[in-house]
Amino acid sequence: MSTVDTSLFTPELVFFDFEASDRVDFFTKMSQILMDKGYVKESWLDAIMTREKNYPTGLAFEHISVALPHVDPEHLVKPYIAVIKPKEPVIFEGMAGIGGDIPAELIVNLGLLAHAEGQVAVLQALMGVFMEEDTVADIRAQTTPEGMVDTMKKYCA
Question: Has this prediction a pTM greater than 0.90?
Fold first, then answer.
């Protein structure tokens, strides 16, 4: 069985050409979207910004730079995985202090009910996806929310 619950990928949480001047702007806008859609509590914004400051999530792979921000389950109403292709890369700090600033071309925001061990398993599975050149090319080629969902499900299954 996959470590990623692919049912959490939904077209309503796929965004293309997302405009954000920086990660604070990104999180502020995502907070409103996720609250409006009933996924997160008001505490989500402060919690994800604090977590990102303490545990940065930017990763530079050979073929794409990504960010995998996530938050503890108590800030969620229901689980989700949001996939965002920003209009311009959004700067995230490198995970585990590696790589300095990472201009994220793709942001996969995880809202998982699993605690630390489950989140680590999902993060590792996603990292494996972003290491493959053909997989990254397929993800980059997507232009519709439905296509992105199908593609992420295919590689995360």
Answer: yes
